[in-house]
Design a protein that fits this description.
Blueprint lengths: L1 H29 L5 H16 L2 H20 L2
């Protein structure tokens, strides 16, 4: 049960990350013609990334990398 919730949680996180990254890429490609939703998602993501200090971002990426290595070794 817990493993299923964990799997669903990670899939939701991955899907959210894909949607945000896709919106940023589409904004770069299409510009203002991409639509209101795509522009809003990209604008929110960029403003969030500007507010987070670089050290925090690097720390989170490092923690995620360590977690991924830990999970890979324990399988």
């Amino acid at each position: 049960m817990l493993n299923n919730l964990k799997k669903i949680g990670w899939q939701a996180i991955e899907l959210g990350a894909i949607v945000v990254l896709l919106s940023i890429v589409l904004t770069a490609i299409l510009g203002a013609e991409g639509g209101v939703v795509i522009l809003a998602i990209a604008k929110n993501a960029m403003s969030l990334l500007k507010e987070i200090p670089p050290g925090t971002t690097i720390g989170l990426v490092a923690l995620l990398g360590l977690f991924a290595l830990y999970e890979k070794r324990n399988k």
